[in-house]
Structures are given as C-alpha cells and as structure tokens.
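Morning F.,

Quick status update on the modeling queue. The single chain you submitted on Monday has been processed. Sequence for confirmation:
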Amino acid sequence: MKKLWKMFLAVAVMSIAICLFVGTAVFAETKGGEICEGFSWSFDTESKTLTLKGEGDLPKGALSYLSFPWEEHVDDIQHIYL
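Structure tokens below.
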C-alpha cells in the first residue's frame, strides 16, 4: 500500500511540474497601422522593434511630432527598421 501512495504522489508532482513548465508559452503581440497612403508601421512587443515600411517620399507632415501613431510604445522601442 505504501508503494501505491508513493507512486501516486510521484505522478501528481510530475503532472503539476509538466503543467507549470509547458503551459507558460508567451506569444509576442504585433501592433501596427497605416501612416499615410503607401506607408505603414508595426511594433513587435517581444523584440521591441518598430518597423516603418513604404516606398517613395513620405509626404511632408505625415510624421509630425504631435501625431506619432506608435506613441504608446515610445518608451519600449529598442530597435527601429526603416
């Protein structure tokens, strides 16, 4: 009977350990949007990377100081790709 309880306890502890370590997957969130026609931005919360994409010349005033669309992430940005 003691062996049965020891086996049950071992299985319970191993099950809890597996649940704790396997069930903690974290996925990065990517936020983004359009700056103006033909230009977009995205921010990856895991790599803390801001990416700006587009072709040609960005229209004057499209990125005025008062209207950064990624403003809520400005303190988290570590890398910028243009």
